[in-house]
Amino acid sequence: MAQLVVERRDVDFVLHEQLEVEKLSKHEKFADFNRKTVDLIISEARSLAIKEMLPALKLGDEEGCRFENGTVTVPEAFQRLYDLLKEGEWIAMCDDPQWGGQGMPTTVSLAAMNYFDGANYPFMLHTILLHGAAKLVETFGTEKQKALYLKKMLSGEWGGTMLLTEPEAGSDVGALTTAAVKNDDGTYTISGSKIFISAGENDLVENIVHPVLARIEGAPAGTDGISLFLVPKICVNDDGSLGDRNDVVCTGIEEKMGIHASPTCSLTLGGKGNCRGTLLGKENKGMRAMFVMMNEARLEVGMQGLGCASASYLNALAYARERIQGRSLQATSKEAPPVPIIQHPDVRRMLLSMKAYTEGMRSIIYYIGWCEDQIRTSSDADEKQKYQGLIDVLTPIGKGYVTDKSFEVCNQGVQIFGGYGYTKEYPQEQLLRDCKITHLYEGTNGIQAMDLLGRKLGLNKGQSYKDLIKEMRDMAETAKTVGGLETLAADVEKAINKLEETALSIGSTARSENMMSAFAHAYSFMEVTGDTVMAWMLLWRAVLATRKLSDGAKKKDLNFYDGQVKSARYFIKSVLPLTLAKADIIIAGDDTVMQISEDAFGSK
Amino acid sequence: MAQLVVERRDVDFVLHEQLEVEKLSKHEKFADFNRKTVDLIISEARSLAIKEMLPALKLGDEEGCRFENGTVTVPEAFQRLYDLLKEGEWIAMCDDPQWGGQGMPTTVSLAAMNYFDGANYPFMLHTILLHGAAKLVETFGTEKQKALYLKKMLSGEWGGTMLLTEPEAGSDVGALTTAAVKNDDGTYTISGSKIFISAGENDLVENIVHPVLARIEGAPAGTDGISLFLVPKICVNDDGSLGDRNDVVCTGIEEKMGIHASPTCSLTLGGKGNCRGTLLGKENKGMRAMFVMMNEARLEVGMQGLGCASASYLNALAYARERIQGRSLQATSKEAPPVPIIQHPDVRRMLLSMKAYTEGMRSIIYYIGWCEDQIRTSSDADEKQKYQGLIDVLTPIGKGYVTDKSFEVCNQGVQIFGGYGYTKEYPQEQLLRDCKITHLYEGTNGIQAMDLLGRKLGLNKGQSYKDLIKEMRDMAETAKTVGGLETLAADVEKAINKLEETALSIGSTARSENMMSAFAHAYSFMEVTGDTVMAWMLLWRAVLATRKLSDGAKKKDLNFYDGQVKSARYFIKSVLPLTLAKADIIIAGDDTVMQISEDAFGSK
Q1: ∠ CA(A293), CA(A296), CA(A302), 5° rounding?
Q2: How many CB atoms lie within 10 A of CB B80?
Q3: How far is it, in rounded angstroms, from Cα B45 to Cα B30?
Q4: So where are chain B's domains?
Q5: Which DSSP state fits A226?
Q6: Which stretches make up the Acetyl-CoA dehydrogenase-like C-terminal domain (chains A, B) (predicted)?
Q7: Taking CB atoms and an 8 Å cutoff, what residues of chain A touch B563?
Q8: pLDDT the model gives residue B561
Q9: A170, B325: Cβ pair inside 8 Å?
Q10: Are the CB atoms for B490 and B569 separated by under 8 Å?
């Protein structure tokens, strides 16, 4: 069972055949990352994931985290895993070597993360926000802040978090009440309560650095008055040594449906009136700074979903090949022997659906990373803006759509195991439970849908969404010329045209006095966009595979390539027609959702 | 929070306005069950559910069941609940008063069960199979078996189970290997292992009666050679007193994703060679006997899903009304105050979707019970056959479709709570976990879909499915004449026509050499049938509500009736178009699912 995390052949396909990451090594920045090096990195990540992280997945779920007297103990096995991550420098894969990073292309780092998250993402949650926090320090920190914190964080010696949410300020960050008062020495005294802080307290690291959103005394209400502060758990002296314990106290951890191995902490800042922090960036520009981290954090959540889906699919596939149950439906004799359940049509349907989504989502997530690499290697401002726009538009898809579909994949992954899927004997039920949080944090998926319609559709006067449409249309055009894919290409083209029509329609309603009705369809719009992006990715894969098949692919690759064409065909023939119907529903714009009175929902 | 189980107004609406259960009291069998009595029953059930069962829901989840030395200890609070169930005679609501039953109409009993299951279905699992087991004894037992067991079981003094599944015989019951050897005294010696037995061992009752499927020595292979046996945990002497401990031993309980308060037991029969049972019914007719119980058991599983959905919806609604978060999207000023989240379009979308499904599913489940009541009160063989056919056709919908949609409702119920929904502070995550098993037991939902296409579509030469179509079409015809519902009625009629076309198409393929391709679309066919049944039920509700509104309904009912029209409109305008598209996919019959080779699913 050891290899059931991520399909290596598919990872290689996306990296080398779809996105051709080796081309990045032509750029001086990535000169070290030729095919051989990339393969080595993925092999190392795979080995670490399978040999070390995967065995701790169930252990972590069972053992969970313990809270006692302000301290949090994580599962015992995690200390070794964390040491291995540090030793392998996996925490700062893409970061600047100046700060201890490996300077890797983002696309390659995502493939490694796919393995890590697929094997044990509750463990990986100990490092994800650490990286985001370090990026904040790198982007907005003073030279002093960078010198004091950055290497310690990117090496993993210190942990890092993100302190946004408060009990009364969740989706509405602007409502936060944590306060900051400037001291004479330029530091700030912070006071407030924060909740839902992943790895906000733990025994893996000697210090934890909290970027904290708070409002400076007298600052405006709402998001315009929010500043960002750096608040270490243990104060850092000017020479870099650790000083006094800061007044940041963990008051408890959440009991949750899943990710039991990841402590979700409540923190009180300044309970004794003595929580000290330094301003990170400019006063009242905290929200803007946080948004810089948002794309990365949301993409990572998408990757967590994909990790669960990848593992659930491979486990289901292996089980369906082994589990003997029931005669073939076609068997004419009652004496016919029972068969592996992969031969039963409804099991195949679930497997093919899981396969198509897992593959398509892998392409979506890696592609977003690849856009980041285009920005990192480009010196052309227009090109940078184009790729940034694609990232911005695709982020709600990579987070909202991908995690929704990942949960559906994990749900089917339970089904294939029958009653066994509900037991803790197999990983399927944990993957489903762990996956569920991805719909909620870093902005609920409803928030993602609002982001797509309210911000991203009109971004750069709509140019970014148009750029996405153009990328998709170009691939459909290409596919039309590939023998055997003509009708699939035509179907995808139809969906792209319909998506464009839908975007115009809902975008126009969103700017009208009926804007609330448009937002009642925002979720569907995210789904229609996501489905079309999925169809694009699968068609793209099918184009490459069909060409390889007609160019005489190696025998060992024939099944894989054939599987690519089948995934595309399944999705385009059995899912995409629903997308068109969903688009028509959006365009029709029924507004019952807004018409119903609050009292008509039910008695109080 | 105490009342957040089931909407009483909606229960009353289905019982008294939609299904007019009082009419049943015209029949001598149900003469006692006039409106006043029915209302009293529902009020009592509601009170028991809310005051006693609901507080034990979370307790049961946390405490779970303990297995030690062959015994199973259930959560402490359950003993009192069980005593209350016994005292109130709730275990045998519909059964013959001769055996201690209350002789209630099935429809009314389902409304009571809706409350019980909505409050604490893991607890109710201790009685569900007990009732099924008792029905087996009543239907197939000898006079002696009935005399010895029936009253003890229906009173709840003894428990009951259903021993079908074995490690290698799950969906394929015919593969079971549990063996029975006839003894000289007419009893049988049983040996084998059974798994996944709900309440197979527990400390609530002094004895447990196991109906066991086993194969008599020399009987044919497969389902044709299966017989049913009655195997008590403690042997019963001829005078009804308890004798020796039988050789049935619990060897363990499953660790599961949810329903922790319900012990899922593994049982070994005849480990010491001394497990005694008596034949129940005829030799080799065990499967047929078990099928008699199947409809009831499957409908009950649907009710469990509905119970979770009902509770999740009411909790979400209450939370959305109370939780203040974010300005209105329409607010023009940044100073605008935050609003209850029920005002946000995407939250309303989720709530209305949850409401429409919960209501529609309630009607589906109660309607199936109402069909049972028609059989119970009819003396016309044709009428009995018609209603039995409707029950048979609707059972896969009431189980498979309803539990699928219930899970989706519970999933949205978590979303509305944001991050809090993932914590154990609120019931939402438990409802989602508990709901998941309903997709798996009593035949996975994939099995339900195969049952619909493979058995039920052609039942009575297709007449039963046609009867269903006719019932639906009659309602659409009626709705066309109701002011304001004309277009909704036309939409539903279109869906019914499309369903009929789809049934003909897939039914014909299922009988052809391409039958495997048809079964690859069986699940979609269940969904299309279910959606159309849902639309029928919601349209029916809207017809009644619209008439009441135009006839001058009481002021306190105006919101409720308006909510009925809105539920129907939402579903018909925002879901049903997808159903038509799904039907077209079935008719198009793409067979990629069968075309893909096993190796192309991924490496081994």
Answers
A1: 135
A2: 11
A3: 19
A4: 8-153, 158-285, 448-595
A5: E
A6: 469-596
A7: 596, 600-602
A8: 98
A9: yes
A10: no
Torsion of CA B168, B172, B174, B176, to 10 degrees: 20
pLDDT for the residue A272: 97
d(CA A525, CA A538): 20
> Which residues from chain B sit within 8 angstroms of residue A62, using beta carbons?
none
For residue B577, give the nearest of A345, A581, A599 by CB distance. A581
By the 8 A CB rule, do B190 and B227 touch? no
Contact A602 B418 (CB under 8 A): no
Domain B8-153 of CATH type 1.10.3730.10: no
Nearest to A421 among B326, B440, B569 (CB): B440
Please report residues of A whose CB lies closer than 8 A to that of B523.
Answer: 346, 349
Homologous superfamily assigned to A1-328+337-443: Butyryl-CoA Dehydrogenase, subunit A, domain 3 (1.20.140.10)
Which of A411, A522, A595 lies nearest to residue B566, judging by beta carbons?
A: A595
Catalytic residue among A429, A442, A493, A527: A442
Q: If you count DSSP H runs as helices and E runs as strands, how many of each does chain A have, helices first?
A: 20, 14
Minimal Cα distance from A260: which residue of B? B423
Taking the whole predicted model, whether its pTM rises above 0.95 is answered as yes
Q: Using CA coordinates, name the residue in chain B closest to A9.
A: B603
**pLDDT score recorded for residue A332:** 87
> Which chain A residue lies closest to B446 (C-alpha atoms)?
A346
Mean pLDDT of A526-550: 98
Tell me: the pLDDT tens digits for A303-340? 999 999 999 999 999 999 999 999 999 998 878 999 99
Q: What is the ipTM of this complex?
A: 0.97
B147-172: pLDDT as tens digits: 999 999 999 999 999 999 999 998 88
Handedness of CA B71, B75, B77, B83 (dihedral sign): negative
Comparing CB atoms, the residue among A423, A446, A600 nearest residue B563 is A600
Dihedral angle at the C-alpha atoms of A161, A164, A168, A173, nearest 10 degrees? -160
pLDDT tens-digit map of A62-72:
999 999 999 99
First to last CA, chain A: 51
Q: How confident is the model at residue B2 (pLDDT cuts 50, 70, 90)?
A: very low
CB A446 to CB B415 under 8 A? yes
Asked if A418 and B440 count as a contact pair (C-beta separation under 8 A), the reply is: yes
Inter-chain touch A600–B559, beta carbons under 8 Å: yes
Q: pLDDT-derived band of residue A584, with 50, 70 and 90 as boundaries?
A: very high
Closest CA of chain A from B390, distance in Å: 25
Task: Please indicate whether, in this complex, the C-beta atoms of A221 and B334 are within 8 angstroms of each other.
Answer: yes
Q: Count interface pairs A-B at CB distance under 8 A.
A: 305
Residues on chain B touching A346 (C-beta within 8 angstroms): 446, 449-450, 519-520, 522-523
Query: Is the CATH number 2.40.128.110 carried by domain B158-285?
Result: no
Contacts A585 to B, Cβ<8 Å = 573-574, 577-578
- Best CA proximity match to B195, nearest among B163, B220, B172: B163
Q: B46 to chain A: which residues are within 8 Å by CB?
A: none
Average pLDDT, chain B: 96
Average pLDDT on A432-442 reads 97
**Is B578 in Cβ contact with A590 (below 8 Å)?**
no
Is A442 an active-site residue? Answer: yes
What is the per-residue pLDDT for A290? Answer: 87
Cβ distance A422 to B440 less than 8 Å, yes or no, reads: yes
Summarize pLDDT for A184-240 with one digit per residue, the tens: 999 999 999 999 999 999 999 999 999 999 999 999 999 999 999 999 999 999 999
pLDDT tens per residue, range B201-211: 999 999 999 99
Mean pLDDT to the nearest integer, B110-116: 98
Q: Which residues pair with B198 in a beta bridge?
A: B264
